[in-house]
């Protein structure tokens, strides 16, 4: 089966600095792929390139065998790619429910005029949106916080809400940028199970950036390792952790640090 | 105080309210600040005056019905705002503010130089068609239109743009389009307010639509509370009526006004309503939010305690 | 040719007054990232301080001139303390600063209207109106003096920023205020200095502006043009503010001289819009790329 996302020779330069250099990899349909590498390896830049926040200097990005190069971020979201952010970007002053309801907008098609005149199509579609948002909150265990202003949510739940908001867009490919950042081992464990579960329940593919090796090794079927903007290894958790370059560039020091 | 006097103040407040409601959509709900909306009022006022003034007056008008003046004035402001939006909506933060300031002043100065419309001396012969009833109806329509818009997916998308632009993009919202729609609607509101203003004063002059007027509109929106329609309504009533009632202190009222603005900014930046709405559903929402916060606190506290016991 | 040179000299003279005003906008912007619209009100007060020092107190010009500048320095600092400091401490978004500035500007203008009155006042003749003739050229003494003193003030300002310790702190803070605070720089003192410098030059500019034209409470609105000059040169950049001012002053004078004086005000806003569309960071402003 063709991969859902296919990246070839992707390069992004900022002035003289090469943030991403000639990177190629695939995300097979229905898989969970991990993207790892030391700080400044270009992981988040790749997310920004995939979601259209940055325009690549060269290379191609194909989603379901169609190029998505040069599309505006909202168009890419329309096609079914969405993401979370390393530094959480919720609609902070809105409630948990409103955050998800806003993201559900794609499931409605009523026009401005229908909204302003409150015509029947507006009413029925609005009801469906509310039901969908509440259903998502229920499934993801946030219904107890429905009316809480997002800013007042505990940190871990803010990350979870960001994932729920992403799911509201009916994505096919979900990009998670350090979803376990700042979480304790318990929470990380929970998150791991959650990622596996949403992949199955929502039948999507996941690309995840993470520093927590436990999480990456436990949940990803395939791992891509970056260093200084270049891909240095790729394979299963086992293969990657045996690669000499990876040990030298990243895992060696990181595992030592983790042990300490 | 006679009823005619009070009615006069209320009419002025009602006219201001239309412009403020429009700006409230742009600033309070979409997060874009404008210091040029007096320019859109000017366009509405002049186009409206031109449509309804008698062909016999100087400057000559078309002598058409008032309703056409309202539609024409609003549409003209909307069209101009589209072109302004095309070139300025991509600017970041306060550069957009500065651009709106530039356009607002440029529009005023252009009217200053158009002798066909009376130039700097102004346009005296505008028919006095703005009645209390007409303004009241216009206010009700303006409020309902805005309230329904804000509670729809389109309104929520605008709020998302205000809250977090990048996240809104990633959530599939065409940020530029929603900013543009918000700007156009707010300009149409300002234009319509300009038409009513011209037909209330019966005399218009470019200097009525200066930067000070734009600032006043923004101040009212902030005073009322960003993201609150009821706040904008109350703000327009209070801040238009108050200076008028302070007429006795004529020369000192603007001193108080300036001091009040600083005081509001420094002490209560959330404004009168702070994002709340004075409607049954608005009050329910605030209560639900408070309740949720209380529950969340107890829940987290309980979790923390059980964690310690482990 | 003669007319051209004459216009050029006029333009440079008014441009240098704009520059004195524009650096005040730019200094504040470089540290606090907002457009201090109260600056116009401070300049207006400077014009009045100078006027009354000369007419009521009958002080010699140099003393009146210094008194006006020290007066505006004090006003600028008071405005900062009352209208901005509480916002700074609360880390309020830039918009609250702008609105507070607008409030301060309304306040200053109307205090003057309420106490002194809205009438236009003309400065007494300090310098002889007889122009200096240089061949076919006739140069106004006032224009020459304005240009010379402005140039001296701006040079001193740049020396202050480049050479003194607090000047270096200002430069550093314009790159990154937070990092500066972490490095032990007293940002509150930096901000006070910036307002003080801007305020002092506002007094100089106010006196010159009053001498060249007249004094009235709405002078502040005219100074919007110096703000445009600051944007034109690149908000936050001092050399940019000076360059932008001189160019704007010259363009304005030529437009008024060769086209029509009615377009003189309009041209400033046309330039503003063109700059924002083509290069919003101005001639010398810093360009930054957002990180997602």
UniProtKB/TrEMBL annotation, chain A:
Keywords: ATP-binding, Nucleotide-binding, Transport. Gene3D superfamilies: P-loop containing nucleotide triphosphate hydrolases (3.40.50.300). Residues 5-253 form the ABC transporter domain. One of its GO terms (cellular component) is plasma membrane. It comes from the Bacteria. One of its GO terms (molecular function) is ATP binding. Pfam families: ABC_tran, BCA_ABC_TP_C. SMART domains: AAA (SM00382). InterPro entries: AAA+_ATPase, ABC_AA/LPS_Transport, ABC_transporter-like_ATP-bd, BCA_ABC_TP_C, P-loop_NTPase. CDD domains: ABC_Mj1267_LivG_branched. One of its GO terms (biological process) is D-alanine transmembrane transport. PANTHER family: AMINO ACID ABC TRANSPORTER ATP-BINDING PROTEIN, CONSERVED COMPONENT OF ABC TRANSPORTER FOR NATURAL AMINO ACIDS-RELATED. This is Leucine/isoleucine/valine transporter subunit ATP-binding component of ABC superfamily.
UniProtKB/TrEMBL annotation, chain B:
InterPro entries: ABC_transp_permease, LivM-like. GO terms for cellular component: plasma membrane. It is found in: Cell membrane. The chain crosses the membrane at residues 6-25, 32-51, 63-83, 95-111, 131-150, 183-205, 217-239, 251-268. It is a multi-pass membrane protein. The keyword Cell membrane applies. One of its GO terms (molecular function) is branched-chain amino acid transmembrane transporter activity. Keywords: Cell membrane, Membrane, Transmembrane, Transmembrane helix. This is Inner-membrane translocator.
Automatic annotation (TrEMBL), chain C:
GO terms for molecular function: L-isoleucine transmembrane transporter activity; L-leucine transmembrane transporter activity; L-phenylalanine transmembrane transporter activity; L-valine transmembrane transporter activity. It is a multi-pass membrane protein. GO terms for biological process: D-alanine transmembrane transport; L-alanine transport; L-isoleucine import across plasma membrane. The lineage of its organism: Bacteria, Pseudomonadati, Spirochaetota, Spirochaetia, Spirochaetales. This is High-affinity branched-chain amino acid transport system permease protein LivH (TC 3.A.1.4.1). The keyword Transmembrane helix applies. One of its GO terms (cellular component) is plasma membrane. The chain crosses the membrane at residues 12-30, 37-56, 62-82, 94-117, 137-161, 190-215, 227-251, 263-282. Belongs to the binding-protein-dependent transport system permease family. LivHM subfamily. The keyword Transport applies.
